Fold:
Amino acid sequence: MNSYQQQFTPDDERYINDCADIIASQSIDLTEEKILDLLQINKRWPKGSIETINHSSYTSAEYFDCNNCLIYSEWKRLYDLGFTSHMTDTLDLTKDLRELNQRLYDIKGSSTVGNLYITKGTNSRRVSFPLHNHEYLVIVKPIYGSCVWQVGNETEEYGPGDLIIIPPGMAHCVHESTEPRLSLTLNLTA
Amino acid sequence: MNYIEECTKIISNHDVSFTEYDILNFIKMRRRWPHGTLSVINYTHGKNNYVYECDGYLNYPKVKDLYDLGFTVQAPHILDLTEELRELDDKLYTIRGTQTVGNFYFSKGTNNLPSFPPHTHDYNVVVKPIYGQAEWLVGEDTFVAGPGDIIFIPMECPHAVVKGEEPRLSITFNLDE
Structure:
């Protein structure tokens, strides 16, 4: 866990630590196979719920049919080419994720936005968004696969068992990602 | 073999395993169920469904509450949910040249309103019971059907489930001609 203490009030710190404890202790059983299966439930994935990070540094999402449902085979082609995809609001997907949302709800008083980032990690394409920041606190929980993160001035490899805490306004990105990887980012306003 | 017979044979021969636990688990995936996708059959004939939250997605506890009271739930367009269902849709696609509308009906089977009252459609329907038995009315005939059976409802033929006293899941396939 990286250091973040300086910027927060003791109250914020307690809240962040409580959230981090819950996120760290929640087991999330998700494999590449399971995620690919979930993505084939194509009515769960209307436009906007999944995007692929591309070289315009934004995202592309040209793989929906006229009913606004994901065309899995077209998305999968980009995935197989090594692009990273980003799924928004995923805490309803499995029992573990729903449990995590419920546990966070009990201390936050509201539902949490949890996003999944998935890649085959061939590193042949942009690995993720370039260095950027958010006005809210983000905690990242790697589910499978390790990769090199930059958070502020620190560069470090993180994988399952780690948590990455990104304070509001702190620049961050993934630098290197050479293996299949799934991580969950939780947006937590402090 | 004509088109309907061919489709019916595919539906009949394709294994679909689903338990009550599985179906309830899928209903908890709330963003799979935006407003209007799932309804509970009630005495307004399913017209009043206050089972969605203000963000437009399903409120599972409300559905579960009505389900536990014995009301039947209708979930349309479900052939994307599992690999077995997607495979079945793919097989039908090769004959029909289009995707098939498949709907779930599931119930705890404790209510006196087992489904919609007798009604008709302008397309043929093939029903495949997955678990549980129910008594059907199709045209003038009344019979009990359960897993292993196939119910064929020709277009414009009045039909209804008239009694359903055990937990039940069936899939209806709409086959236009």
